[in-house]
Design goal:
The chain contains four helices and ten strands. The chain has 153 residues and is an alpha+beta fold. The protein has a domain at 2-22 and 38-114. One of its GO terms (molecular function) is monooxygenase activity.
């Protein structure tokens, strides 16, 4: 299940469920890089853009590579401030572990029961549609077939 966990995180790194979020500074503060933030200032982060930053993920930042999350075959999470899909600190998503468990269960159930293949295998990349939650412009066409050993009797 470590590889499934890594593939799930890598998918969300490149295509986060929520593309961006913002908070308001509760008081004057200074960011680690020395940037001053005045009380009441809106601070926005863009998880979609952060997932593609070479300074965070290296020269292969645009490549889907679940192995970046594995060490010795085991899943190793990144800092929530580098990978803000579930936010971090006191604002971390309270349902994070449940959501991950449910997503892994669905992935395994689908892979065991169905063959899923992309309909359009051209070099066309899915385009992220702007909005609060993640969608792909025009969808992602796939063909789904029940595996023979899972056919209804």
């Amino acid at each position: 299940m470590h590889y499934v966990h890594a593939a799930l995180y890598e998918s969300m790194r490149l295509f986060p469920p929520v593309q961006f979020d913002s908070k308001f500074a509760a008081g004057d503060d200074t960011l680690p890089d020395g940037t001053f933030v005045a009380k009441g200032t809106r601070v926005t982060y863009h998880a979609y853009a952060m997932g593609r930053m070479e300074s965070l993920w290296g020269p292969d930042c645009a490549v889907f590579r679940p192995e970046r999350w594995l060490s010795g075959g085991r899943f190793v999470p990144e800092s929530p401030y580098r990978y803000p899909v579930f936010q971090g600190g006191v604002r971390v998503c309270v349902g994070k572990d449940l959501a991950i468990m449910e997503m892994k269960a669905v992935i395994v159930a689908v892979v065991l029961s169905f063959d899923v293949e992309a309909v359009d295998r051209s070099s066309r990349r899915p385009k992220f549609a702007p909005g609060l939650t993640a969608t792909f412009a025009g969808g992602v066409p796939v063909r789904v077939r029940r595996r023979a050993h899972c056919a209804p009797s």
